[in-house]
């Protein structure tokens, strides 16, 4: 168990290990397998459904898997299956067969008469795993299907009707949102919500927890705010605005405020302006100072495409809230994307909490035990590897400057490459991957780059990363779903590569979460293969510069040799993880009241679906209209509550009070509006003919929730601290050694 996992246990949340009862059940299953050798194939599914003994069930699915796909689950995989069936998040190392484990658990759940949804990290993995495991499901008499973004309504309905459905979390969320707004029960595609098995559980349940899935209806196109974007671009950092030490906030200086007021001829704090210019300016400076091209987003095909930092891919469905999205587009001189009003939204936690049983699997759960416990009340169970890991993990190499660090990384990669040892270097962003590739090329080291600009080529690139002499530079590898085999895909040179020490993983900069580093590290040493990892950092790296408070001395080559320096680097990572957890908690506080209000709205919709047409259409229209208006109002309230919080009340308390008051007459008001309309149109046969149809266009996307808070909230927090004479906690001076 890692040091971080032990610390989590000391603080009260401890990873579990398989207990004696589970091990005895697996041992009994092993004893029962020989007796199944002579049982005909078609009799195995019958026995599976007839025998409720857990050990017998494990023995049967192990035998079915061996016959159907040639894979006999080892004992530790069966322990993982039991962990899933007990509702836990199980940790299985890379290469230990998570896909098979999930399928076996799904078969056993289906044999109990339960519908199973397997949540994948993306469409590719949903389709791949369902297809890969289909022979196992067929042999067990279990229907399996998958859903992806290209699936039509009928295909989705058929897939969800299968015994086991593989689907990306985003697609499941979008289907849930569309089902909420149907005008006829027959239009729904989903039905049963009994068991959900989440693959790459930390990615889906933690990294995506703050990203609301949104169903939007079309409204008038937005106009680009190029004037404000140009003004902010002309400003000088430090003179007109200041970025906080942690990089999470930016505020205008008095000189910046004066420049804005002079340019637009307004008083930023006047009642007549109503804060409109201030909001525009804050969005523009956020886009200019806090969001970086080729790091946070790409510009491709005339559009802004967000980069998912946890996966290193273009997040094709993600966008920022409309104001910030438009500000970035104005910054880049692009035509603004279509704006929309939010019809409804849902988050990953809300989505999985609909199921009777939630469980999941990942290779990096032990360092996220606190998050799983606080966010989902799920315990983490660490499954030991079938073959002990012999990977050599070197201590973090910390350097004083980024230039020193990059020089050391290039030297290390060049030395390994000269010996023929394959190297996989992980970088935090597109820009960093391209910079390292350029340095390697200058050092006569040929390399292949995998990042958000060419992620469609990821499978062949990653598959060959274990080839002798290969050097692969990649952004984050989470959810890529491809194992790296020593010697390449054919394994012809496996023995030679193993003799050289196996795959060498190089981490070029610490991620904000330790488990992302662990995911990269875990690409080496799979299933007992030799391998090694070496991670590098510098005091100028974004994470350490934000959160570390020590500046130790360095050697002649720039390396920080003191243990205290390395400890501070690791501390910076823990601080970042704590910040992410607080952001999630804050987001959830704002979501509690709207979530309860949504339940009332959905219950009323269910009642209205039983009404005859056209009355049903009219009443649904006014109810949906009222809910969309309420959501828009809540968004404005959330931005405005910091003004009231200057009196000392917490913003979330003010928000909840306003949300409750605004909702009081929503349901009755929608009914009254419908009654009035129906009375004025007694002969109505089609509500749509009178403009009461659904939106002319709807689309789905993921909102990249603003982790820095509302622009107005950030601004007011800064001026309040100045008024009270309190220093920003992120502006405290660094503490020297000792």
How is this structure best described in words?
Monomer and homodimer. Part of the essential Sec protein translocation apparatus which comprises SecA, SecYEG and auxiliary proteins SecDF. Other proteins may also be involved. By secondary structure, this protein is an alpha/beta fold. The protein folds into four domains: 3-217 and 348-382, P-loop containing nucleotide triphosphate hydrolases (Rossmann fold); 226-337, SecA, preprotein cross-linking domain (Pre-protein croslinking domain of SecA, Alpha-Beta Complex), CATH 3.90.1440.10; 392-561, Rossmann fold, CATH 3.40.50.300; 584-697, Helical scaffold and wing domains of SecA. It contains 27 helices and 24 strands. The strands form five sheets. Strands 16, 17, 18, 19, 20, 21, 22 and 23 form an eight-stranded mixed beta sheet that branches. A seven-stranded parallel beta sheet has the order 3-4-2-5-14-1-15, with helices on both faces. Strand 3 (144-147), helix 8 (153-161) and strand 4 form a beta-alpha-beta unit. Helix 4 packs across helix 7. Residues 1-11 and 706-738 have low confidence and may be disordered.
